[in-house]
Structure formats: structure tokens, C-alpha cells
Amino acid sequence: MAQPPALPVIDISRFRAPDAADRDAFLAELRSAAHEVGFFYVTGHGVPAPLRDEVLSAARAFFALPVERRLEIENLNSPQFRGYTRTGTEYTAGSAYWREQIDIGPEREALALGPDDPDYLRLIGPNQWPSALPELRDIVLRWQAEALRVSREVLRALAAALGQDEGYFDQWFDDEAAVHVKIVHYPPRAAEDADQGVGAHKDYGYLALLQQDEVGGLQVQREDGEWIDAVPVPDAFVFNIGEMLEIATQGYLKATQHRVVSPQAGVHRYSIPFFLGPRLDAVVKPLNLPAELAALSRGVTDDPDNPLLAAFGENAVVGWLRSHPRVAERWWSDVLEKRESR
Ligand SMILES: O=C(O)CCC(=O)C(=O)O
Ligand SMILES: [Fe+2]
Fold first, then answer.
1. Cβ within 8 Å of residue 3, ≥6 positions away
2. Which residue, judged by its Cα, is nearest atom 1 of ligand 1?
3. Which of helix, strand or coil describes residue 338?
4. How far apart are CA 129 and CA 135, in angstroms?
5. Residue limits of the Fe2OG dioxygenase domain (predicted)?
6. Does residue 204 have a pLDDT over 60?
7. How many other CB atoms are found less than 10 A from the CB of residue 77?
8. Is the CB of 212 under 6 A from ligand 1?
9. CA 129 remoteness from chain centre
10. Where are the domains of the chain?
11. Is the N end or the C end of the chain the one with fewer CB atoms within 10 Å?
12. Which CATH class is domain 9-340?
């Protein structure tokens, strides 16, 4: 049965409202959604419905390809962790996820690097695209451009809601900014009690945007520990705060834990998350919050299993190495050895 959404709904078009009072009311709503829950729906985003349908259809078509065609772009081929991950080979906290996916990032040439270059520069490189579904590239890149536009608008609105100039975060963006799209398929659970689609985690960039189909399964942890469903809301994206914004606001905004419960037998779920991070070389500094907001900051989460790193490139490297151990062993063994001996 359809449940009413338990998360706030933010109409981003109100950010450009000509009426100052309405804009202030909008910023107050956004601020409270981002501070109290860290998860909210965004409507009024202007991403055309046909494009949203096209990307989900392309996702279904890719995962319906024979496995050998999917494996042509396996991420094991890619030092930059790009490409296809088979079900059961991606991890959080040592426990496998029940999903398959394609990881896509900015389309670049890999750099010729020396031993003293920072490790995160190894994340720069080309994507892999399936020859069996040539239209996927164009559809995903068009969708990615729209997701980037909407996320940057939400980030501008958040800057304004935090008492900053709306362009505050622009200093961290240029062509090297970390954008990351995932095309994801959650197969039905293999057994009634095997329901981990994705284990509890936080996202490491500034913001994540999610387009989900009508199945549901995403859950968000409230401050009291209770898990609530981020039920699909037609035409809305789900947004959540990532670790970089938690650091920038000293915990006034919080990177919220979330997870995905696998669909029931016979049901398949498809989702397209998009992650917006700053440039790989960005080191996020705490921003100057207005006193009344600073008083409500909770500090940055101190979890020994997942220390939050203000250096974004390093935060990203740690995340990739942890979630894709096979790619890490194949292409990053020198980095792993260096880190183990520290
Ligand atoms: O597919 C979803 O609903 C969420 C996925 C997610 O949280 C992630 O990939 O970080
Ligand atoms: Fe996530």
C-alpha cells in the first residue's frame, strides 16, 4: 500500500522566487530538512520526464544483456574503478552488496603519473561503454548533465540557507570536479532473510541525487536510530547530504546513514544515483556559519571505521579501495602496501 513520504519535499524552483518572503520561507524549509534529516525529495527541478524514462529504460536494457556482454566493460579492466560490477563483488564493512552496477565518471584520459604524485590522480581516466548498447553513452551523458545542473542548484540554495553567498561552493568546482553516476540493478533477494541490497553507509561527496523506479527499498536512519523508508515519489529526486558538507558545516548538516533493502522474490529494482563532489584536490574547510546555526552544529562524526577526511581526493580513494577490493588488488597493490606499512 502506498505510504505518504516521511521525508520533507523541497520545490527547488522556489529558490528563484521573485518574492523575497517566499524565498526566505523556502530557505528555512531547506535548512531544516538538511539539518534535521539530511535526506529530502526535490521537485520543481525541470528534468524532462522523457529523459528520466529513457535512462531507466537504458538501465533495464543493459542489465538484460547476456552476462558476457556486461562483462566486456567489467570494472576489473579499469584502474579508475569505472565500468560494470557483478552482483556480490562490492562491499561495505566487509559485507557484500546484492546489486550490479555501472560506475561512470568524468570522461578523461588517464595521466602519466610518478611515484610522488597524490594517489587520487589515479582516479582520473576514461569510462567504459558497452558496445552492445551504443545509445547508453549519449543517454547517460545527457542525464548526467541535468543531474549536475540540479545538484549545483541545490548546493547553491544550501549555501544561501547557511548564510553564505550562493556561489560559495563554486570555488571548489571546475572541469575536474568529481561527478559520478551509477546505473544500478537490485535483483530479488536470494533468500527471505538475505535482504542486504546495500549495507548502511554514508556518501562521501557534497550531495547525492537519486532517481529511483517505483519499487522502493531505500531506507534512511533517523537520529533516534529508527530506519524510515524513502518511498518513491513520482517526479521527485531523493537528495542527501554527503560527508564533505558535514565537514564544511562542522556537523550542522549531517551525512546521514542509509541502506537499500533487496526487493522481494520476482521483483527487480533499478536506480540511478548521482554524486556531486568538489575537485579531487579540494581540502574542505569549515565555513563561517551564522552564530545561531553554529550553536546547533553537532561536530563531525568520529567513527574509527570511517574517519571523514577533509581532503576530498583522499576521502574518495579510501571509499573506492574499500568498496572494490578486486580492482584495488589488481591496480592499486602498491598503494595498498604503502598504506598497510604506515
Ligand atoms: O540505489 C539506491 O537507492 C541508493 C544507492 C546508494 O545509496 C549508493 O549507491 O550510495
Ligand atoms: Fe549512498
1. 229, 231
2. 271
3. helix
4. 10
5. 177-278
6. yes
7. 15
8. yes
9. 20
10. 9-340
11. N
12. mainly beta
* Ligand 1 pocket check for 218: Cβ under 6 Å: yes
CA dist 337 and 321 (Å) reads 12
Q: How far is the CA of 305 from the centre of ligand 1 (A)?
A: 20
- What is the residue-averaged pLDDT of the chain? 92
Range 83-87, long-range pairs (CB < 8 A, 24+ positions): 83/127, 83/128, 84/128, 85/324, 87/187
Beta pairing, strands 100-104 & 83-85: antiparallel
Question: Up-side HSE of residue 89: CA atoms within 13 Å toward CB?
Answer: 18
Q: Which of ligand 1's atoms lies nearest the C-alpha of 275?
A: 10
Model-level pTM greater than 0.80?
Answer: yes
C-alpha 243/C-alpha 240 separation (Å) is 10
Please name the amino acid found at residue 171. Q
Q: What pLDDT, on the 0 to 100 scale, is given for residue 95?
A: 65
Kindly report the CA angle at 284 between 181 and 112, in degrees rounded to 5? 60
User: Which atom of ligand 1 is least distant from the CA of 208?
Assistant: 10
Hunting for cell 538501465 — which residue is that?
A: 59
Judge if the beta carbon of residue 258 lies within 6 A of ligand 1.
Answer: yes
Find out whether the beta carbon of 321 lies less than 6 Å from any atom of ligand 1: no
